[in-house]
Amino acid sequence: MTNIKELAEKALVNRQKLPGIFGPETLKPSYDGLGLVNIPALALQLLGVEADGKTAPPFNPDLYGDPEISRGWQQFLANGPINHVVVLLVDALGYDQLESQFRKGEAPNLARAANHPLNFFVPLTSVYPSTTTTALTAVATARTPQEHGIMATTVQFPRIGAPINLIHFSFASDNTPISTKLLNPDTLLPVPNIYKTFIENGIQASQINYYQFENSTISRFCSAGSGAKFVPYHTPAGCFTALRQTLENTTDSQKSYTYAYIPTIDTTAHAYGPLSATYEAELAVLDFAFQREIVEKLKRPDVLFILTADHGQRATSTPHIAWLNEHPELMRLMSAPAAGEGRAAYVYLRNGEEVLEKARAYIQTTFGDEFLVLTKAEALAGGLFGDPEQEAGQECLDRLGDLILLPRRDWQARQAVKEKYEVYPGVHGGLSRAEMLIPFLAMRLG
After folding, report:
1. CATH architecture of 321-422
2. CA 285-290-296 angle, 5° bins
C-alpha cells in the first residue's frame, strides 16, 4: 500500500491546498469525503445504517482522483463481511509526525501495518479549527463544525456573555466551573450523536476511554442520551487491552461500533513539543501495545480497525504570539474577550460595519504579514467550517467571531484577560499541513 499512500498524499495536498495568502503549506479541510468527519459516516455505511441525509458523506477514495487508490480500497473491502467497526483515535498523532517516526524506525509495528499489502493507509484532513473539542464532536456526530456548533476549545456563548472553556467546562477568564444548570452538556448539541443512531438500529455501541473522562462534559455532550457502554482504562496499554477484550466478548451475530480514544500523544506533544524525545518514547509505548494486544492477539476477520487522529501538531515559539490585550485601540472595538484557539482566534466586535472595517484595518496594519483576517461570512463561504452550500447552524453563527485571525507560519493570537499565561511549545488549531493532515490506517484483524 506504500504506493497508494504516496499517490493519495500528493493528490490530497493538491486538492486541498489553500492560496498563498493563507500562508505556506496550508490545507483546506475536506468535509466531502476525505476528512475526519467522513470516518463516522463510513462506519454508519459499513454497518448498514441508513444515513438521514444530514450526516456527512462517508469516506470516498474516488475523490483522490486516481483509479489505483479506488481499486485498493475496493480490494480491501472485498476481504469478507464487516460486522464490527473500531475507530481508534490517538489525539494529535498527525500524519506527517507519524510518517517521520516511520522513517526513523521509531514505530516499527505501526509502520509494518501501514505498509502491509492487505491494509489501507492514506492521509485525510482534520476539521477546522484543528482542535480536539471540534474534532471529537465531528467524530461523535458525523456532522461538520458549522452543524454541530462546537467551534473551538474556548467558545463565546452570547446568552452567558463570556467565553467558556469546553474541556474544563469553566469560565475561560479564571477557570471558575460553570453550573450545568446554566450550560447543560446533555443538551448542548443541536444534532444527534452516532452512538444513539447505532443503538436505535440494533448495533452495539461502546466507548473505550481514559477513566477520568467518564461523565466528563465532552463525553456527555458527545454521547448524550445514547446509552452507549463506557469502558474505562488507566494507561494507554490498558486501552488496547480493553479494546481487545471488548471485541472478544462481542458475539458473531451482534454487530458493533467501538470508539477508543488515547490522549497521551497530545499531552506529550504540548508539553515537550511534537517529535521530541519524550514524544517518541510515548509513541513507542503505543506501538508496542498495539502490536501485542491487537495485531498478535485479536483474530476477528469481520472486524474493521481504523486508526486515525483528530489533528496533528506543530512546534511554535513563545515570542511568536500576538497578545491582543496589549492593543487598547483594538480592545475598545471589541464587545467581548477573544475566544477560539491561539491558531484560530475569534474576535467579537461592537455592532456596525464601520467598527468591523476599523478593527480589520488595525489588525492588518499592526500585525502585518503574520495573520490573515477573515470575516465570519468569508470563512463560512470559503468552506472552512463545512459545506458552504449548506446553511450554518445558529450555534455556529452565534459563537464564531465577527473576525477570525488565521496565523501564518507558527504565530498565535491570544488574549490574556488578567495576565499572560504559559503557552505550550506544541500547538494545533490552524490550517498548516502539520496540523491538518491525519492518518487513516484501515486493517482487517483476521
Report:
1. 2-Layer Sandwich (3.30)
2. 130
